[in-house]
């Protein structure tokens, strides 16, 4: 490259021309989409091609610009170009809303009057909030424990089985269902329409109970115990995830290690508790913290099944009620900040476990 004033000017003009051409392509595609709105299929195909192509072209041009810069700033420029947009989006979509919620948590419901810690006092003294904390604790303990234990048991039992793929596929299948969809499915299972109704009009669980001589129950209306019936839904959804991750960790255990234990006279239970569990413990901890985070911010299942009524309310659902039903943005923001503060240590520990696992390197 010519390092004269004329050469530098020519290089600058070339870079500007590339930027203009890329901008013209981006704007031209946008204009084209406006003209073909009536042709839905054509517009969809064009939008996909234009969107992916525009992003690729934009990064290519910006990378070319960075590569032509002096060596001292080249590496920094490339990092900014490729990581900068993601950081900006993260700042705009996560950091700014968090800071705004933090500010609103010290304001009244209108966001105009400073009330200091009143909203946080409400969050830790209101009976409904205390009930929500209790319920979230139930989800964290029983839901997480059930998912992890069942995942370990299933992963060990089906390991090297002839029908391993089929069994794992069936257990993992609920993972593809949305939480709302799962709630709708289990509403039919728990359905109850009163005594004396036709058996075709009651849920699957009540049909089984009545066929065995029992009495139909309104499972989601029974205080306290209805929380466990909702937890079953989470276990149904998340056990497949736990099983797949733990199964991959079990298969990574060297065969020679188990064979050496058998030669020394160890039985299956001794191998399981002395070799398998200690070896896959980092994976178990990672799976546990991941499901723990899910149980902390749980919302969909409770919202669809009971709406938080009958003693089943959780923190995320109470936030939704305060913000979008009652318009109490101050209290809702305080609940959101409390939930964030509770989740951050678990999330940080989870990330540290991921970084420390050699199997992921």
Please estimate the helix content: over 70%
Following the backbone from N to C, one meets helices and strands in this order, namely HHHHHHHHHHHHHH
- Total of helices: 14
User: Hey, roughly how much beta strand do the residues contain?
Assistant: under 5%
CATH superfamily of the largest domain: MetI-like
Task: Name the quaternary structure.
Answer: single chain
- What is the averaged pLDDT score? 85
**C-alpha Rg, in Å?**
28 Å
- The CATH level-2 architecture of the largest domain is identified as Orthogonal Bundle
CATH level 3 topology of the largest domain = MetI-like fold
Describe this structure in words.
With 361 residues, this protein is mainly alpha-helical. It folds into two domains: 5-104, no CATH class; 119-360, MetI-like (MetI-like fold), CATH 1.10.3720.10. It is built from 14 helices and no strands. It has helices at residues 5-35, 40-67, 71-104, 118-125, 127-158, 164-172, 179-189, 204-211, 225-251, 255-263, 268-296, 300-305, 315-325, 329-356. Helix 4 crosses helix 14 (329-356) and helix 13 (315-325) packs antiparallel against helix 14. The chain is extended and about 90 Å long. The mean pLDDT is 85.
Quick rundown:
The chain is mainly alpha-helical and 361 residues long. It is built from 14 helices and no strands.
List the helices and strands and how they pair.
Blueprint: H1 5-35, H2 40-67, H3 71-104, H4 118-125, H5 127-158, H6 164-172, H7 179-189, H8 204-211, H9 225-251, H10 255-263, H11 268-296, H12 300-305, H13 315-325, H14 329-356
Helix pairs in contact: 1-2, 2-3, 3-14, 4-14, 5-9, 5-11, 6-9, 9-11, 11-14, 13-14
């Amino acid at each position: 490259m010519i390092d004269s004033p004329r050469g530098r000017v020519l290089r600058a003009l070339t870079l500007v021309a590339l930027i203009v051409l890329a901008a013209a392509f981006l704007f031209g595609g946008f204009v084209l989409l406006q003209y073909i709105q009536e042709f839905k299929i054509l517009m969809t195909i064009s939008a996909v091609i234009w969107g992916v192509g525009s992003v690729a072209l934009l990064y290519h041009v910006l990378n070319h610009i960075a590569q032509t810069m002096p060596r001292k700033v080249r590496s920094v420029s490339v990092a900014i170009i490729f990581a900068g947009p993601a950081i900006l989006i993260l700042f705009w979509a996560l950091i700014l809303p968090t800071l705004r919620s933090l500010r609103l948590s010290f304001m009244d419901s209108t966001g105009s009057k400073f009330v200091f810690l009143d909203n946080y006092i409400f969050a830790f003294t209101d009976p409904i909030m205390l009930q929500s904390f209790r319920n979230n604790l139930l989800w964290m303990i029983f839901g997480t424990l059930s998912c992890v234990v069942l995942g370990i048991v299933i992963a060990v039992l089906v390991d090297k089985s002839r029908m391993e793929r089929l069994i794992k596929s069936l257990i993992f299948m609920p993972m593809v269902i949305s939480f709302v969809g799962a709630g709708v499915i289990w509403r039919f299972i728990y359905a109850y329409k009163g005594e004396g109704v036709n058996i075709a009009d009651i849920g699957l669980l009540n049909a089984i109970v009545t066929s065995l001589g029992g009495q139909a129950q309104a499972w989601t209306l029974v205080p306290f115990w209805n929380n466990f019936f909702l937890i079953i839904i989470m276990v149904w959804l998340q056990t497949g995830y736990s099983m797949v991750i733990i199964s991959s960790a079990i298969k990574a255990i060297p065969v020679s290690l188990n064979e050496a234990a058998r030669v020394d006279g160890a039985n299956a239970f001794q191998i399981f508790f002395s070799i398998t569990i200690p070896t896959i413990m980092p994976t178990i901890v990672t799976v546990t913290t991941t499901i723990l985070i899910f149980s902390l911010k749980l919302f969909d299942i409770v919202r669809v099944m009971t709406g938080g009524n009958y003693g089943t309310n959780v923190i995320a659902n109470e936030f939704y009620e305060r913000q979008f039903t009652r318009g109490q943005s101050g209290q809702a923001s305080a609940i959101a900040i409390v939930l964030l503060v509770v989740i951050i240590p678990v999330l940080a520990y989870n990330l540290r476990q991921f970084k420390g696992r050699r199997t992921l390197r």
